UniProtKB/TrEMBL annotation:
Lineage, opening ranks: Bacteria, Pseudomonadati, Pseudomonadota, Betaproteobacteria, Neisseriales
Enzyme Commission no: 2.6.1.16
Residue ranges of every copy of the SIS domain listed in the record: 41-181, 214-355
Protein name: Glutamine--fructose-6-phosphate aminotransferase [isomerizing]
Catalytic activity field: D-fructose 6-phosphate + L-glutamine = D-glucosamine 6-phosphate + L-glutamate
Coiled coil: none
Gene name as annotated: glmS
Active site: 360 (for fru-6p isomerization activity)
Quaternary assembly: Homodimer.
Keyword line: Aminotransferase, Cytoplasm, Glutamine amidotransferase, Repeat, Transferase
Record GO biological process: amino sugar biosynthetic process; carbohydrate metabolic process; fructose 6-phosphate metabolic process; protein N-linked glycosylation; UDP-N-acetylglucosamine metabolic process
Role summary: Catalyzes the first step in hexosamine metabolism, converting fructose-6P into glucosamine-6P using glutamine as a nitrogen source.
Amino acid sequence: ELGPYSHFMQKEIHEQPKALSDTIEAVLENGFVAELFGTNAAKLLPQVEGVKILACGTSFYAGLTAKYWIESIAGISCDVEIASEYRYRDAFANPKHLVVTISQSGETLDTMEALKYAKELGHTMALSICNVRESAIPRASELVFYTRAGAEIGVASTKAFTTQLVGLFALAVTLGKQRGRVDAAAEHGYQEALRQLPGSVQHALNLEPQIKAWSDKFAAKQNALFLGRGLHYPIALEGALKLKEISYIHAEAYPAGELKHGPLALVDESMPVVVIAPNDALLEKVKSNMQEVRARGGELFVFADLDSHFSESDGVHVIRTPRHVGVLSAIVHTIPVQMLAYHVALARGTDVDKPRNLAKSVTVE
Ligand code: M6R
């Protein structure tokens, strides 16, 4: 079942080009049409005036990424909340807001309960982004987008996350199109970006030997810091969670602009700092944050692309993806942080597919 791979997590990381192309197939065939989200979607989506995303863990980070796309492409306000927090607070419900739950398993109790609570509060439109057909959460939702990642066995979410991002990106573009913010040329551009995505992800996978070479530097550490900005901040969060979850190294993620507001105090020679730094509009800002880290002796491990202009130097290690892929760069830059966590865990000899204390599907509180 594992084929040439040592663990399900490694296999699932490498399955991403296929999982992504299966998930985008319908978008490439039909464009960004409401029907991608179910038969009721043509009626419901045009009524949407805001989006509220509810999820846990890695799925929550998919939601944080989606917020950037939904607000910039669709021009609709979007807030993202941890399901276990939402379900226990006196929340305000606007029935014109679409509730979007994100769950690989479709059975996560906190997400399911948050959805029920949203309905009790008066929400009437719910969309589930889910990988398991006919599971509890999509069954309780008016609309559904099934990711086509195939079964995910490793406890660490990998291909589920990147395919969720595709579903959420498709939602942002579809809402934007309905609101007249995405014209035919822009739609074509977004379709092309999706068409090229599996190839770009494959290029990122090819970086595995370089990333493996970094893993020894992390294996002996107690802590790691992950930094990103904008769309790459949620990817920093995801990288930190992956590392914690499977290697048991304490890792934290911050938006790089927050360094001076506290976490910079943690940085010294013993702190590895992973930076997601592709050539987007915030790169210059990220570079100055990197200098802040170097000035305190922190060792930088930078995931960049060929267009991010800076070079390796003392204490600055750089791995580059072949080119900048624009709006979907967050998806491509997820691959290196997954592989880093995997190889660090291997170097530490932990149980990669079944990390201690965790279950694949969290059906209890
Ligand atoms: O099945 P779900 O997507 O609802 O699961 C949510 C989280 O439990 C899950 O993403 C968890 O954080 C992963 N183990 C992270 O790799």
